[in-house]
Automatic annotation (TrEMBL):
Cited SUPFAM superfamilies: WD40 repeat-like
PANTHER family attached to this UniProt entry: F-BOX AND WD REPEAT DOMAIN CONTAINING 7 (PTHR19848:SF8), WD40 REPEAT PROTEIN (PTHR19848)
Gene3D superfamilies, per database record: YVTN repeat-like/Quinoprotein amine dehydrogenase
Keyword annotations: Membrane, Repeat, Transmembrane, Transmembrane helix, WD repeat
Lineage, broadest ranks: Bacteria, Bacillati, Cyanobacteriota, Cyanophyceae, Oscillatoriophycideae
Xref: InterPro entries: WD40/YVTN_repeat-like_dom_sf (IPR015943), WD40_repeat_dom_sf (IPR036322), WD40_rpt (IPR001680)
Family matches, as PROSITE patterns: WD_REPEATS_2, WD_REPEATS_REGION
Entry-linked SMART domains: WD40
Name of this protein: Uncharacterized protein
Transmembrane segments: 347-365
Pfam families in UniProt: WD40
Superkingdom per UniProt: Bacteria
Annotated source species: [Phormidium ambiguum] IAM M-71
WD repeats: 375-409, 624-658
Amino acid sequence: MSQSLIGISTSLKELTFQPGSLPANFEVNVVNYSDKFVSFQLEVIAAGVEGNLKHDWYVLSPEISSKKPPGDSTKFIVQIIDTPLPGFVGQVNLTVRVFSIELQQENRQLIRLTVLQGLGEVALKLKLPIAEFQAYPNQQIKIPVQLENPGQKPANVILHLLGIESAWLIEEKQSLHIPAGDRIETAFLCQIPSPIEAFSQIYHFTVEAIQPSGLSSQIQGNLSVLPKGEVEFRCNPKQHRIPKNFLSFHSKPVNYQLEFENASNLDQICRVVVHTEEKVDCQILPEEINLQSGMTNQVNLETKVKRPWFGNEKKLLIEVASELSDRRLGNTEPARQILILKVLPRIPTWLLAIVLALLAYLLWWSSWLNPDNPYYGHQKAVNSVEFNGLVDDLISGSNDRTTILWRVDGFFNPFSNQFVRRISNRDKAVRVVRYRPVDNNVMATGLENGEIQFWRLTQINNLIGTLSYQKDDRVFGLEFTPDSRSLFSAHGSGLVLEWDTTFTKRNINFSGNERLLRKRQFDFAISHIKLLNLEQKYLVISGRYNQAVIWDLSNDKVIKIPYPPGGQDDYIFAVDSSEMVPFLLATADNQGYITLWDLEKCILQKGACEIRDRWLNTKVGESVRSVALTSNACYLASGGDDGKVRLWALTSDGKRAKEQNGEDAKKEVDRSDENKAIFSVDVKTIENHVLIASGSEDTQVRVKTQKRRFDLNCEMQTKQNTEN
C-alpha cells in the first residue's frame, strides 16, 4: 500500500462535551508530504449521523486552508457547539477526514467524544418549510411549522402565531410535547375572510414557541393577500325623457345617479368620463370620488339638450365610462353604461305620422305592388300565360279584355316593376295568347268572339291584323308551326282551322278568309290543342266527352287516343308535349287526373297509344285546368281548381320520379289567393333553374323558380346528352 501524501495529527484523542456549557475544542495539524502546492479541507463525521444532514453541531476554522508548499503544514481548529446526535448521552466516535482536491487523496483520524447530561433547557429550533404565502380572500391556507428539540430532555411548548388577525385563524395557539432530540411538524389553518374584510397587502407574521421556563424561539414569515373583488357600477335610472311631462313645452335638465360600490380589497379613486355623439350638455359632480374598500359613493350626471321643433322622438345614447386608479382588478363591473335620453319634439308628431301613412298608402295603392291596382296587372281572371324563348318576358291574357307584357326578373325583385305595358285592350275577353316562335316579336291572341289578333311587341299598340272565321265561335287554342308560317286555331264549336301567317314588312295585313289554309270539324267542343314536334304533321286536340285525338295533317286522318269515355260534363282541359321528347304527351281532365301517354305506337305503328303514368293531381280530385312540360320532358307543371301550382319531376321514360323514401318528387310552388282556380301554367328551364308561370282566377300572374334536380335520372341523362 502506497504511503499517504497527507499527514494528520490531533491535539486530543478523547474529549468531553456537556450541552449548555462551554464548547469543546481540539486542533488538527495537517502536513503536505507531496511535491506540489496543495490545499486541504476537513470535515468531522459522527458515527450514527446520516451523511446528508447538515453539520451544524461543530464550527471549523478555517473552512479551507490556503495552498501549502511541499513539506509545509496547516492547523484546523474544531469547536463542538452541540451534540451530533440530538438528545444523546454517552460516547460517540468522531472521524476527522482531511482531503485534497489537487492530490485526489484523503486521510482520517479517530477521536472519541463523551457527551454528558445537558444543563437546563435548550432553545427549540423552528423552521417554516414555506416562508412566503399568497392567498385570495375567502381562501383557506395551511401554514406548516417544523419544531426540533435539540436538548436531552423532553420539552413542553406553547406555539403562537402572531401578526395575523385572530379571527382569521382556526386556532391561534397550540400546546405541544416534543421528545428529546425529536422533530415534529404542525400547521396553523388560516381562513382569509371576504374581500372587504381582508385588505390586499403583505401581512408579516411571527411563529413563537415558548417553554415553561420562558425560553422562547421565533421565526418570521409573510402572508400576501392578493387583490380580489370588483367595483360595481350602477345607474339609476338608466333612461330619461325630455320633457318628463309629454305635454310640456319647456325642457328642464334631467339627472342620472351613478353609484359605485367598492366590493374589493383595494382602495380606489374613481373617475367618470362621458361620451356622446349628439349635442348633449353633460355635467358631472364630482368628477372623481374616493372609494375605500367596502364603501359606496355616488356621482350626479346632469344632462341638457335642445329639443327640435318637428320630427320623431330621438333616442340619444350617452356612454358613461369609469376609470379606476388601481387597475389590478381591471375596471368597474361593468366598465361602461349606456344611458338612454329620449327627446321629444316641441310639436307632436302624430299629425305628421297620419299624413305620411296616408301618403304611403296612396303610393302603394298606385304602385305595381298593389295587386288590385287598375293601372297595373289584370282586373279579372287570367286565362293564358306563356314565356318567350329567352324566358326574360311573359305574356298573359285575361277576361278583363287585356293582354299584358311582363318582365320576368321583376317577379323576383320587389324594387323592379314586372309590369311592362298593356298590349291590347279590346271589346272581348282574351282566351289564349301565344308568341310567334320566330323572333318572338309578334303575339297572337284568341278572343271570346272568335277573332284572332296579331300584335307587334316591339311597338306600342301596333295591331298587325285580325283573322275571323265564324263570329262568336270562341278561340280556345292557338298553335304556331315552328317556322311561324302557319297558325292552328281551335274553337268551342269543334272547328280547327289552319291559317297562313307569313308576312313581310310590306305585307303585314291579316284580314279575311283568304289566309285560311284548311279546316276540320270535330264532333266535340275543343278546349286545347298542341302541335307535336314531328315535322309539323300531327296536331293533338282535346275537349268535351273526354275526347283526345291526333290529327294526321299529312293524310287528313284522325288517330283516337283511348281515354276513358265521359259524359257531356267531362273535359280534357289541357294537353302538352315536349320539344325533345315529342312522343310523350301530357293530358289533364276535370276529374283531377294527369296522364302521361306514349304516342309512338299509335303514330308510327298504327297501334294503340299507351299510358306511361296516370295519377290524381289532388286527393279530392278537383279539375286540372292546365299542364305544361319542359323542353326536355323532365318536369311537368300543373294547376287547377284547388288553386295550387305543382311541379312534378319526371323520369327519362315518362313517369313520375320518386324520392329515396318512395314518395313522388313533387313540390307545391305557389297557390292563389283564397285558393281560386289556376287557369294556365307554363314552365321553362334556364341554366340551373326551373321557372313556372301561372295565371289564375284571382287576377294574378305569378312566376316562381325552383332548382333543377340534377340528382334525378332524367336531368342526369339530359346533362350527359348535352355534354356529348
